[in-house]
Amino acid sequence: MRVIQNLYARTAVLLVLLRLSVAQYEHLGYPPGYPYPEQEEYTAPQLDPDTPRIQLRLAGQKRKHNEGRVEVFYNNQWGTVCDDDFNIHAAQVVCRELGYVEAVSWLPSSKYGKGEGPIWFDNVHCTGKEKTLAQCQSNGIGISDCKHSEDVGVVCSDKRIPGFKFLNTLPNHVENLDIHVEDVQIRAILSSYRKRIPVMEGYVEVKDGGKWKQICNKDWTQFNSRVICGMFGFPGERKYNPRVYKMFARRRKPTYWDYSVNCTGNEAHLSSCKLGQAVLEKSNGTCPRGLPVVVSCVPGKDFAPTLMTGFRKAFRQEQPLVRLRGGAIVGEGRVEVLKNGEWGTICDDKWNLLSATVVCRELGFGTAKEALSGGRLGQGMGPVHMNEVECSGFEKSITECSFNKEALGCSHEEDAAVRCNVPKMGFQERLRLSGGRNPYEGRVEVLVERNGSLVWGTVCSEGWRTMEAMVVCRQLGLGFASNAFQETWYWSGEVSADAVVMSGVRCSGTEMSLSHCLHHGAHLSCPKGGGRYAAGVSCSETAPDLVLNPQVVEQTTYMEDRPMFMLQCAYEENCLSSTSSEVPANTYRRLLRFSSQIHNNGQSDFRPKADKHSWVWHDCHRHYHSMEVFTIYDLFSLNGTKVAEGHKASFCLEDSECDEGIEKRYECANFGDQGITVGCWDTYRHDIDCQWVDITDLKPGDYIFQIIINPNYEVPESDYTNNFTKCRCRYDGHRVWMYSCHNGGSLSSETEQTFPGLHSNQVTHRQNI
User: Fold this and answer.
1) pTM for the model
2) How far, in Å, CA of 388 to CA of 462, rounded?
3) How far is 540 from 654, CA to CA, in rounded Å?
4) CATH 3.40.30.10 is the classification of domain 55-156
5) Scanning 40, 295, 316, 655, which has its CA 20 to 30 A from the CA of 209?
6) What is the distance between the alpha carbons of residues 341 and 407, in angstroms, rounded to a whole number?
7) Hey, where are the domains in the chain?
8) Cβ-proximal residues to 763 (8 Å cutoff; 6+ apart), any chain
9) pLDDT tens string 52-75
10) Is the Cβ–Cβ distance between 502 and 446 less than 8 Å?
């Protein structure tokens, strides 16, 4: 008996451990294509006759469509819900009543703005199992002592309840209700569009009650088409040929949804549109005008395929007035605008879906999925150009919206960002990670055509680096690369996919798909083969972003003549020019010295790639190098010729100072952990060894000085374009000045062209490989 009890006890412990091991990855979510836990099917609620009939919607100053102020339609009037006693269980009831799988959070104190009308519910107490908010205990409908400053809001999950069916309990007030369906799609009908990617033209279909249905085109407007196209990543809509669709509808009888749609055109999602009147079908089963709704969308120029370039340039933003920076995938990032030749950010005051959608459409994407605030996608540097932006949603550019030119009180901690809807290109279906411990890591396997059939295979790891891993993580929608692996023997992967099907991969880091990178094509070359030497990656939702403070360089520059006998350690670490080996010890070297203040403006800490046990000890300087080359210093003539150079190993990566409220985490004393915390900076003072350029052999004149951080991409970052700094430098033989110092990408392209040297860190790195 005791043996059986022990067996039960051990089994229970193992089950608990299993749940804990799975739970540690729950915060990561489930990436696209990874199986979700099964969800219970939707069942229509059976309400008692005495239960008040209400309808819900999410309103207010939204930053994504599945959040907002909770509003209740009752007694012919919209009203709100007070936050007194409201909790996550009540939010769960609200979200599920609206068709979402669950509630993520709730927000008190009118975070989405103050509502109007009566406060219908106060002191709400729910168990979370109720089918409607009206079934929860409360003071009674319409009984409240609250003000609209206490209006409650909720954030629901993106995922919809399978089989959800919209139930209109107030048929006489349909024009007041928002649209809530399980899903929406554009279904290609004509054979000429069925094989095209992305799908740009076809029937608009809604999934209601688990079934796909067409929408009758009675009262359908161009504004409705604009919203649908925006949802699927397209900035605009166009006319189509209705004759062929009329012929198709005659041959195959459509199944119509019960309602029409009424959008104003500036909505970011169909769920923000109003229901139109119920459609009364004719006896022959067709809608009054006899056709299902068809939309034809216009792709942005980056997604319109051409014979020559295909989709290769889809991630390279070429807009003159607005751009996105710091995002992991196409269509997301910190919003930056160009003003007076200098790029700057937007303060997040009043930042919402309307303004974010204007940015997305301007860049050739669809509507905004989310308007982010609080520097969520990293902090910029330089000026804050716009504050309190307010748009109607129909502007061609964010610069046409009204805004407050004064950015007093705004810092880069309030930088606004966006996530845009982009067309579905199908790239995720041709790549997978296999054998990893969680969905965010594994051996890279690609789907290719071999002998007329599609097969999975591995990627040769020879030359596999951070940039290639970045493209893989982006293609799978998994964020940034955190590591690129050249051996994957510890990840078994699929045995049937061991063969190498792609080799010689070289990426710039901006491609949308691994197939868009340079590679060998059909003529493979991989001496080590696949299997244990196949390429692998691990991905992360966040990444660091190192940015040098150019003003510090400008303010700390000076010149020093130092005798060779005091530079022995620097000589051993190759910090002097090559001519130093030919001169006696009693001569002097002329050094251009300066300080470097390197900020981490990203979303995660910057840590050396190498583990502690592999750090290199330098006996002369008596310290470890965690990165052998952390920065490179170059002097160029005005025609772009390199005339002097230097480099700096990471003697010690630590938090010298931090923004207010952030604690230092890294220091080098006593063989401590090295790194730079988010919101902190590491200062390499001008008076330490190798923090210089040897200009002994330099002639007086005007030059361009350049600093590159993390030049070999040993550590993944969210943005490499800002990893270099340039200054104008004047040397008269006795003194030296630095002026016009700026970071890469901070000025207009026209201004940047006047500075010789690097214009793209990635391109130069690839040329040196």
Assistant:
1) 0.85
2) 50
3) 22
4) no
5) 295
6) 18
7) 55-156, 183-302, 322-421, 428-540, 546-754
8) 508
9) 889 999 999 888 999 999 999 999
10) yes
